């Protein structure tokens, strides 16, 4: 099967937090009175960021649910990770996010998700106000019988506060596969944008069921990098989406 790269698009915008975000970094030591669960931070600046792996993984999970590809049984492998599995070459999920199957002939993963760093204007604003870039939230486990905090005591979670803004940058490759002119990959890009709407309706990071990680995507643009082109706003089309089954064409004028 002949595969040829014909276009490269940049999908960019801003991630704005509506509630606190926790993407954990792990902890090597225990401190009395310290934070139990810190967020991931840049090793040089100390500023929190959204790892591309976290964002890409969440988008893949949401698309798996939307396309009914979550395993029905615990002993079944996740869709697309079976090295000896046989998957259709035109599978949108695997084209977008990648697959490890040896027999896969649909080409490499189309999506590259960059780490998302804080928008400098937001950082400067918070710094001028003398506010921290992260917050500490104390939580407790409730004793179901007595209706009060359990004896194990409180735990302190570190979060990026509501209102924080991160720069979103993703790249998407369009391949001509078996002479289709990139038609199926363009359909995959539309599917990715619809999955991003699901992200707004769900949550990113940990503790989403407890209110963490609600966000919205702003200023979404699509720009052709190869061949070079000007960015076009797709925000209005994105906001018009109501469900994954809605029709969408980010390429039309």
Observed structural traits:
single chain, 253 residues, alpha+beta, two-stranded antiparallel ribbon, 5 helices, 22% helix, globular
Structure explained in plain terms:
The chain has helices at 52-66, 92-97, 120-128, 183-201, 235-240, and strands spanning 3-17, 49-50, 111-113, 116-117, 135-139, 142-143, 148-149, 155-159, 165-177, 215-226, 232-233. The protein has 253 residues and is of the alpha+beta class. The protein is built from five helices and eleven strands; from the N terminus they run ββααββαβββββαββα. The protein has a five-stranded antiparallel sheet. The protein has a two-stranded antiparallel sheet with strand order 2-4. A hairpin with a 4-residue loop joins strand 6 (142-143) and strand 7 (148-149). It is globular, with a radius of gyration of 21 Å.
- What is the subunit arrangement here? single chain
Q: What does the overall shape look like?
A: globular
String of helices and strands: EEHHEEHEEEEEHEEH
Task: Give the tally of β-strands.
Answer: 11
Based on CA atoms alone, the radius of gyration comes out at 21 Å
Q: What is the residue-averaged pLDDT?
A: 89
Structural class: alpha+beta
Measured between the Cα atoms of the first and last residue, the distance is 32 Å
List the total number of helices: 5
């Amino acid at each position: 099967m002949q595969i040829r790269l014909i276009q490269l698009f940049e999908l960019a915008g801003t991630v704005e937090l509506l509630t606190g975000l926790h993407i954990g970094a792990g902890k090597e030591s225990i401190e009395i009175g310290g934070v139990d669960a810190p967020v991931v931070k840049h090793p040089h600046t100390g500023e929190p960021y959204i790892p591309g792996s976290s964002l890409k993984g969440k988008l893949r999970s949401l698309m798996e649910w939307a396309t009914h590809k979550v395993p029905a049984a615990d002993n079944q492998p996740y869709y697309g990770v079976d090295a000896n599995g046989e998957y259709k070459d035109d599978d949108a999920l695997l084209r977008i996010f990648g697959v490890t199957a040896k027999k896969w002939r649909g080409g490499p993963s189309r999506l590259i998700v960059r780490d998302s760093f804080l928008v400098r204007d937001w950082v400067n604003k918070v710094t001028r106000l003398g506010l921290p870039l992260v917050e500490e939230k104390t939580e407790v486990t409730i004793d179901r019988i007595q209706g009060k905090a359990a004896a194990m005591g409180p735990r302190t979670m570190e979060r990026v506060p509501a209102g924080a803004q991160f720069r979103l940058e993703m790249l998407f490759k369009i391949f001509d596969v078996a002479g289709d002119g990139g038609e199926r990959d363009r359909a995959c890009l539309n599917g990715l944008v619809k999955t991003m709407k699901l992200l707004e309706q769900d949550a990113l990071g940990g503790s989403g069921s407890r209110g963490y990680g609600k966000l919205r995507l702003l200023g979404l643009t699509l720009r052709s990098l190869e061949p070079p082109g000007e960015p076009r706003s797709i925000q209005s089309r994105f906001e018009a989406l109501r469900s994954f089954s809605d029709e969408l064409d980010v390429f039309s004028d």
